[in-house]
Amino acid sequence: MSFDGKQFKRLERAGYDRLGSRYLAAAGARGELAAALLAAARLATGQRVLDLASGPGLLARGAGDAIGGGGLAIASDISAGQLACCPDLPRVAADGEALPFAAASFERVLCGLGLMLFPDDQAALREVRRVLKPDGLLALSVWGRACEVPLVEAALACMRRLLPPPKVARPSIFRFGDPDELQRRLASADFCEIVIRPVRVTVEFADAAAYWQGFLDLAGGAAESLSRLPAEKQQALAAAVGDELAPHAVANGYRLDSTVLIATAGPV
Q1: What integer pLDDT is reported at residue 30 of this predicted model?
Q2: Alpha-carbon span 81 to 256, nearest angstrom
Q3: Distances (CA, A) of 177 to 144, 183, 234
Q4: Which one of 24, 143, 185, 210 is most buried, counting C-beta atoms within 10 A?
Q5: What is the largest CA-CA distance in the chain?
Q6: In the chain, pLDDT over 70 holds for what percent of residues?
Q7: Is 69 exposed, middle or buried (0-12, 13-18, 19+ CB in 10 A)?
Q8: Cα 262 to chain center, whole Å?
Q9: Which of 119-123, 214-218, 246-250 comes out lowest in average pLDDT?
Q10: CA 221 to CA 12: how far, in whole Å?
Q11: Where does residue 142 rank: exposed (0-12), middle (13-18), buried (19+ CB within 10 A)?
Q12: CA nearest 264: which of 197, 209, 211?
C-alpha cells in the first residue's frame, strides 16, 4: 500500500476538525503529561513560544501562564476546528512541515504527541530548527513502544483484529517509541544536546465503552476513518475492545499505564 502524504493530512485535518471540543475534554486526562513537557521546556518570563500541533491549545495556554504578559505563546495546528476551541489564544492554522514564521522567531518550540503524525518528520524538524533562535530549545513528547502504550494500542489491536487493512496508509504513531530512533531522527535534523526520558502516564476508565469513546475523541484521522464505517461495524468494535482491555482490568474498571518519551534538543 503506497503512502499519500497529502491525503493523510486531509484525513487528519477532517478528523480533528470533526472532534472539536470533544478532544479538549478528553485531553484533560493527560494533564500530568502536559505538566512534564512544560517543565522540560524550561520556560522563562518574556519568551516567545510556538506550540506546534497544538490542538485546542493546552500547552500553549500553559506556556502563556509561565512566560507572562511580556512573552508570546502561539498555538499552531493544521486543524482550524481544533484552534477554534481556544479563541482567546494567539493562534495560526498551519502545516507544521511549512511554517509561516520567520527564521529565529522563537526561544521555545513545543510539540506534544505530534511529531509522529507528521508524514515527513524531517521536514517538520527542519522547520522547527529554522524558526528557533540559535540558543532556543525544542521540547516534545511522543508515544513509547506499542507494547508500552496500552492506552492506544488496545484500540489499534482491536481494529487490526476486526477490520481489513486500511485503504489509506498511516505512519505508525509508535515509530519514535524507541529512544535510540528518536535520538537518530533529531540528530539527523541537526539538533544537538538531546535529552530523552520516559514518563509514565496512568489513565483509568469505568468500562470498555468509556475507553472506546475516549479513544475516538482523541484519534483524529483514525476516528474519521472509523466514522465512515457501517454502524454495525462501529458497534462491533466498541463491543469487542474489552478483549484487549482485559489484562488491564481493576476492581472499578480499567487502569492503563503507558509510556511517553519526553525529549529536549537545541539547534546545532
Answers
A1: 72
A2: 29
A3: 4, 10, 29
A4: 143
A5: 54
A6: 94
A7: exposed
A8: 12
A9: 214-218
A10: 4
A11: buried
A12: 197
Give the span between the Cα atoms of 106 and 130, in whole angstroms.
10
Output the pLDDT for position 212: 92
pLDDT of 114 reads 93
d(CA 19, CA 10): 14
3-state secondary structure of 237: helix
How many CB atoms sit inside 10 A of residue 161's CB? 12
What is the C-alpha separation between 248 and 36, in angstroms, rounded? 24
All cell numbers assigned to 247: 489484562
Instruction: Give the CA dihedral 21, 31, 185, 138, nearest 10 degrees.
Output: 100
List 111's β-bridge partners, or say none. Answer: 52, 140
Does the pTM surpass 0.85? The reply is yes
Residue 83 has phi, psi (to 5 degrees) of -65, -25
Residue type, 138: L
All 3 cell numbers of residue 25? Answer: 475534554
Residue 98: what residue type?
A
The CA distance from 233 to 16, in Å, is: 22
Q: Which amino acid is at 13?
A: R
Asked if 187 and 16 touch (Cβ cutoff 8 Å), the reply is: no
Class of the domain covering 5-146+170-202+259-267? alpha beta
Q: What is the DSSP letter of 164?
A: P
Rounded to whole angstroms, what are the CA distances from 196 to 70, 132, 177, 182? Answer: 30, 19, 11, 8
